[in-house]
Amino acid sequence: QERSGRLRRWYELMLDNKEELARIITAENGKPLKEAQGEILYSASFLEWFAEEARRVYGDVIPASAKDRRILVLKQPVGVAAVITPWNFPSAMITRKVGAALAAGCTVVVKPAEDTPLSALALGELANQAGIPAGVYNVIPCSRQQTPAVGEVLCTDPLVAKISFTGSTATGKILLKHAAGTVKRVSMELGGHAPFIVFDSADVDRAVAGALASKYRNSGQTCVCTNRFLVQKGIHDEFVEKFAKAIERELHVGSGFDAKTTQGPLINEKAVEKVERHINDAVSQGASVVTGGKRHSLGKNFFEPTLLSNVTTKMLCTQEETFGPLAPVIKFDTEAEAVAIANAANVGLAGYFYSQDPAQIWRVAEQLEVGMVGVNEGIISSVESPFGGVKQSGLGREGSKYGIDEYLEIKYVCFGGL
Q1: Which DSSP helix (H) or strand (E) runs through 21?
Q2: Exposed (0-12), middle (13-18) or buried (19+): which is 124, by Cβ within 10 Å?
Q3: How far is CA 327 from CA 144, 215, 312, in A?
């Protein structure tokens, strides 16, 4: 009950300070202020959710086969949890983990991304104001150069019982190796390569609206951003034409503090170079630039929202996660072909598809090898929903009623001699 009350107070303080917290995100991350404000509300909702879940960690009494004993199941906190978070959601990725950990009774050590430490420190100040005891929520910012060493310490120190990481698959594999030495509990939310399938039966206008939201949120820099558009041949040309018009009409590149901006800068020069590399590779193999395609005149980290057609599965942009404002469109013939292309990746975080055929919806939703499916929806994240992937996209789930289980151990007590 006490943990629940402190988490609830932390949530209320986030709402009281939402404008300042959002401005911190825009300043250090670049995302438009409206998106940053949305992130703060989303971020705070995890504290509210887990404040409520803190009082709902139930054990069990199991009927025993022997008359003189009783079987009890207790749930206890795992212990110290090390939380390593990315720059693209510098507030929400913290509260989604920390809310669950504190609700379960764990203490946490947060290592925020080197690009965005201020959001983590601001949350720490509000945690203090909420009455969360010193030493329960700890933040250790560090430089890019020190990040590998700090990550290794967190994963190898025997005092740490649990690792929760959101970031790239490559980094996740390194942390898993480090954590194996002491057999720590591990949660991993790793890279995605989300397919977005538009079938002939789809409502094309709704699919375009969903595509715009799914692809260009945070300039294409979210874990569940669409990375590959697969569009059936019957509506392919109509979709590409309407998508291009929507991009040109509705997306505005600029400073995150400008009210009309929908597309801020990418996080750094390296990110821009990757987008350029993917476009150049695709064009060299026959892809066509429908709109965009180059750096924006505003500055070196700004890039035009880009749409490519005539894309094939041999191109880099359909084999790697771009993490930028690039939408490549592949034309396909049959449902089986689309599912095969979608499932060819070694990762499986989110997947989306648009269809108005009920039988097809059931088939494809069950066949897609991802942890989360959006059917006729381009934005699927919510506090009530289990967030996580399959294959090399990670281990475990965050948020929802399942999220607190990642920070609890199950203990069996055999009570004999009765």
Answers
A1: helix 18-29
A2: middle
A3: 30, 7, 13
The catalytically annotated residue of 189, 335, 369, 398 is: 189
Q: How far apart are CA 417 and CA 350, in angstroms?
A: 51
Instruction: Convert the pLDDT of each residue in 37-68 to its tens digit.
Output: 999 999 999 999 999 999 999 999 999 999 99
pLDDT in tens, 184-237: 999 999 999 999 999 999 999 999 999 999 999 999 999 999 999 999 999 999
Residue-wise pLDDT tens digits, 243-286: 999 999 999 999 999 999 999 999 999 999 999 999 999 999 99
Whole-prediction pTM value? 0.96
Q: What is the pLDDT of residue 299?
A: 87
How many other CB atoms are found less than 10 A from the CB of residue 252? 13
Q: Kindly tell me the sign of the dihedral angle through the C-alpha atoms of 228, 229, 232, 237.
A: negative
Whether the per-residue pLDDT at 305 is higher than 90: the answer is yes
Q: Average pLDDT over the chain, rounded to whole?
A: 97
DSSP state at residue 274: H
Exposed / middle / buried, residue 418 (Cβ in 10 Å: 0-12, 13-18, 19+): exposed
Annotated catalytic residue within 223, 317, 321, 406: 223
Q: What is the DSSP letter of 51?
A: H
Q: Could you tell me where the DSSP H helices lie in 130-263?
A: 147-156, 169-180, 204-216, 236-250
Query: Active site includes 52?
Result: no
Identify whether the C-beta of residue 379 lies closer than 8 Å to the C-beta of residue 213. Answer: yes
The set of residues, in sequence order, having a beta carbon less than 8 Å from that of 396 and lying 6+ positions away, is 164, 186, 187, 188, 189, 388, 406
DSSP 355-389: ---HHHHHHHHHHS-SSEEEES-S----TTSPB--
What is the longest distance spanned by two Cα atoms in the chain?
A: 79
DSSP state of 316: G
Confidence (pLDDT) at 243? 98
> 10 Å Cβ neighbour count for 390?
15
Q: What domains, with CATH codes, occur in the chain?
A: 1-190+393-416 (3.40.605.10), 195-375 (3.40.309.10)
92 vs 403: CA distance, rounded Å: 14
Q: How far apart are CA 387 and CA 397, in angstroms?
A: 5
327 close to 290: Cβ distance less than 8 angstroms: no
Whether 189 sits among the annotated catalytic residues: the reply is yes
